[in-house]
Records
---
Amino acid sequence: MVDDQNGERELLMRILRGESYDVCGAADVPQALRHLHDDIDLVVTDVCLGKISGLDLLQKWKRRRPTTRFILVTGFGEVADAVKAIQAGADHYLTKPIKSTELLLTVAKAIDSLRRQVNRAELDNPVAMTLGFERIVGTGEAMVNLCARVRRAAVVDSTVLLTGESGTGKELFAAAIHYNSPRRHGPFVTVNMAAVPETLVESELFGHIRGAFTGASESRVGKFAAAHGGTLFIDEIGDFANGSQAKLLRVLESRKITPVGGNTEQEVDVRVVAATSRNLEQMVSDGEFRADLYFRLDVVHLHLPPLRERRDGIPLMIEHFLRELCAAIGRAPPTIEPELFEFLVNHDWPGNVRQLKNCLESMVVLADDDVLKFQDLPSSASISARKSHIQIPPNTPLEEIERTAIESALAEHDGNRTYAARALKISLRTLQRKLKEWDNVIGTGSVDADSTNRRCPERAE
């Protein structure tokens, strides 16, 4: 409740509190703006508040919290103010003197309208509630700290740059930012710049009018306009066409777009979250990315660590993905034999979370029974063995070649004899026999076989 007349403001607040509304008050626009992050559903404000009017408050507030409902209070007969209020985005207006019954009815309508919009948004977008932090699975200090930073970034309207290797879940984090922000009831629109041809970049982002270019048989709304009032996630921003980077920078600065072939600017209220798996700083140094655009995007920088740096979260991810995948096909989650589970946790996963999930899905679909085994690993993922690059001089004795191959395989698999044997396509018994014949000379070199066996009993002879 915003009114510079203390008596009137307190009276209206008492009336609303009598109907169990949670109400706070402000005497002017600066005081009101301090409540921007208090999850306010409705603002009732007088138009006349001094130098900064209620209309100014409406415009400032809506830029940051577009879903908040507004009721503007005008003097009796000031039709022009009422019209301006509606045009500026107010939901209702009241004229003084305000009657309590009229106030309560108008407030109830505004709140009911907000509730219906929220419910409709959830029905239209059933995944919205599962695209917040519920979808981000992981434990450990790195993930806890990252999620805390994401939560802090979500409540402000700053541009966010997400960096990290491919498959680390950048789109999930972008969605979490959106659905935990004041814009969560607005649209969440995504565009992958790596998939957009250079000639169509501007049309994809800013739209085009009919006849703007060959093949433009009808007008099209671009991603910025589609995301109005919400969030635009630009994935793989490092692949953005060089020739269009200046135009993107201008849109980010002015919040105005001009469709391709058009002459009329259109204001857009969009928060941008960008992501890349490339090194933008290096691209700036190499002249492949505009420095001013990079600095405009890099306001809040969040780096997503690769899966190999957060192995402590892999067991929870495996459980989550198996439960999710099996629920989709109507079966109970399978169990995993210990040998396979250990491999899944210790593998480096160059494709990160995406590769882990795809691997589990393949095994769930193709496994013969309800127990996932090592042989169920998909060969297309090339994870059953790491490639070893062994330089063998000419005329090397066969025994030395065998010894070099086994030592390399053991080193590649952190001393795990089972994995090394599978990588070499020999039996575990054969590997153990070779080691015994050589009196464990490998154990005195790069791999401590005895310490490995103490760490994992199944590796022992």
---
Amino acid sequence: MQIDTTLLPVRGDDAVEILRNDHDVIKSLLRELTGEPPQERKRIFDRLVGVLTIHNATEENLVYPAINKLASGEDESQHLYHETAEADVLAFELDALLKAGDVSQFGVKAEKFETAVLAHIDEEENKALPRLLEIGDPKEVEELASAVRSFRKQLHFEAPA
């Protein structure tokens, strides 16, 4: 399997800035998904899923554990994991609709998906990530940024021959 990491380059000086830049890309793709004609939806959706795969892997493997440890936010990190899982289910349902060519429910599901993802982003940007910067030890927050960069580099891998 190969993940196209060019879909979501690492941009930012710290982990929070990297994630906020990711969020900008995700928001843009969500607007495109709900605003484009039906024949463009599959292409945009596939790109969005690729971006979310990279972003969510970063959060779930590094950032949420850091929120738990550095910002004493176990409940918060568990809540964020749960929200991500709910969005994954909606993404799966959207994918099934696109594959079946069912446009009748796509708009409703896409709006529900967009609402869930935007609410999750809002919670991260206005609550969890600022808390991480405020409460977390500066050295550990810096180490998190380094870990995010390294992790994202490693996401580009080849399938076994």
